[in-house]
Amino acid sequence: MSLLRPTAVTLSAALLILGAGACAKSEDDGSKTGSAAPASAGAQVAASASAGAATCTIDQFGGTKLDLKTAKVGFSQSEKEANPFRIAETQSIKDEAAKLGITNLTTTNANSQFNKQISDVEQMIDSGVQLLVIAPLNSDGWDSVFAKASAKKVPIITIDRKINATPCKDYLTFIGSDFAEQGKRAADEMAKAMGNKGKVAILLGAPGNNVTTLRTSGFKDEIAKVAPEIKIVFEQTGNFAREDGQKVTEQLLQSNPDINGIYGENDEMALGAITALKGAGKKAGDVKVVSIDGTKGAVQAIVDGWASAVVESNPRFGPLSFATAQSFFGGEPVGEDIIIQDRQYGTDNAKADLASAY
Amino acid sequence: MTTQVAARPAVNLKGLSQYGVYLAILLLVLYNIFFTPYFLTWSNLRIQLIQVAPIVIVALGMALVIGTEGIDLSVGSVMALAAALIPLYLGYGVVAAIIASVLAGVAVGFINGVLVARVGLQPIVATLALFVGGRGLAVVITHGQLKDVRNPDLIYLGSGDLLGIPVLVWVAAALVLVVAFLVRRTVFGRRLLAIGGNRPATELAGLPVKRVLITVYIVCAVLASIAGLLSVARIQSSDASAVGLLIELSAITAVVVGGTPLTGGRVRVLGTVAGALLMQLVIATMIKHNLQPSTTEMVQAVIILIAVYVARERKTR
User: ipTM score of the complex?
Assistant: First the structure.
C-alpha cells in the first residue's frame, strides 16, 4: 500500500504531463495570415561574385561525378530549433530535397553540443553519405571530420557559419551572409530613422561569437561614417534572447531616458526591447528600433509601428546549397565563398512582405 | 593572546553572516545614489523589484529545501515545464493554464521528494534527473518552438499594476509572507528544520520525516512553477529552452548570500530575499554603468566567496 500509492500518484502525474497534447486547447493564433508561405518565397540569391574570385571544380577537389537525385545526402543542424532561423533553415533543406526528388536525406540536430555535432557528422560519413551540408556550431575543431571526409572524398558545404579551414580541400564551399554588411545596412537604416542624430544603445549578441563581432563592427563603422552625430552610448549583451533583451532594455531606459535608438543584433532581443519600451510607457516610434534576422514577429513589429527596419539574414539555404552541389557534381566550377543577398524590411514593404518572412 | 585573536573574528563573522547582506545592499545603494543617474526614483525601484521577483520566488523554495540539508537543481526545468504547458491550456482561460502549470510543479516535486525520501538518493543526484529530463520534456511538448502569449489576463499578471504596485511584486511579497509563516509558526516548519538539523534524531523521535521531505520538495517545485508562469506572463511568450535557464544557480546564490547554511537546520527567509536583491542590484549597477557582463560574473563570484567564507564558522557549531 505504502509503495503502491506514490507509484500511482507519480504515474498519474506523468500521464498529466505526457498527455498534455490530448485535451490541450491553445489560444487562437492571431496571425493566421498566410502562415504557410510558399516554400519558394524569399529564396536566397547569391550576390554576384566578383570576377576572379576563387572557384573549385570536381577535378581540383577529387571525387566522382554523380546524380544528386540518387545520392545519399546528410544535413547536420547545430542548434536546437528554438528560434525561427533554425526552424526555417532545416525546413528549407528538407523542402528543397523533396522538391528535387532526393529521397535519401539524413538530418541530425546537435542541440548546441559540439561533440554531438562531430559524432553526428562522423556517423553520417561512416554510413556512406556522398554530400554533407553542415550548419557548424563552432568554427574550429573540425580536423577529425575533415580527415574522414577527405579519405572518402565527401564534399562538405558549410552554411550560415564558416569553418576555419581551406576551401576546396578540407571543405567544398561556404554559403552564408556577410554579417558585417548586415550591421552596416542596419546602421544606414538607423541613421535614416533617427535623422542622423541622437543616442543609440546596442543589444549585443552572445559574446565570443563571430556573428556578434561582425554585426557590431559593421554597425559602428558605418555610424561613424554616415552619421557622426549619432552617439553609441550603451552596449550590453542580450545573449540573442528575448528575456535578456527585455531586462537589459528596462535597465537602460531607466538610467538613460534620453535614448532614442536601439539596435538589436537579432530580432528576438529587439522584440524583448519593444516589450520593455511598452512597459516604460513609451509610444510606438518614440524610440527607433532596428534589428537583424527578418523573423515574422519583427516584421509584424514594423507593421505595428514599433520597429523602423529589419535587415534579413536569410535562412533558406536549401535551394542554393543543392544548386551548388548540382553544378559541382556536374563538373562546373563553384565559388569557394558564396555570399548571399539579404533582403530588407522597412515601413514601405513590411506589410506586403510579411507573409514571406519566416 | 591567541584566544583573543581567534575569538574576535568569530564574533564579527557571525554578525557578518547574519547581517552582512544588508550591509552590502546599503553600501551598493549608497554608491548608486552618488554615481548612477536616476537611481533614486520610483521607476528604478519598480524595475529592480519586477526583475528580482521570479528569482525571489524560486529562492524561497530553494531555502526550504536547503533547510532540510537538501538541494533542488530541477527548479529551472520546472519553470520550463510550466512555461511549456501554459500556451497549451490558455484556450480554456488563464485559470486552466495556471492549474496545469502548478500541477506540473506538484508532479515534479513529488517525484523529487520520493526519490530523496523513499528511494534514499542524494538530493543533488535525485534532482539532477529532472534538471536534465524536465527541460527536455518541456522542449518536446513545445516542439522546441517559442510561442507568443496574448491572453490579456495572463499579461496583466506579468505587467499589470494593483494599487500602483506591479502584480508580480504583490505575488512575490505574499509568497515571502507565506513561507516566513510556514518556517516560523507551523509544526511543518519546525519539523523541516529538525530534519535539516539532525535527520537520524528526528526519525528516532517518531516524526514523519518522509512525508515532510516530500512536501518540502513539492512546495519548492510549485513555487518554481509559479515563477515560470509569471516569467511567461512578463515576457509575453513561452520559450521552453530559455525560461529559467541557470536560475537554480541564482536561487542557491541568493539563499547562501542571505545567510542560510548549506548544512541545513536553519532557514533565513528575509535573508534570502535580501540575497536575491543584492545580486539584482549588482547586475543593475553593472548594466547601468555599461560594464562587461564578464565583470558582473566576477563580482558575483567574489560575493559568493565572501558569503561562504563568513558562514564558515558554522561547521564547528
Answer: 0.82
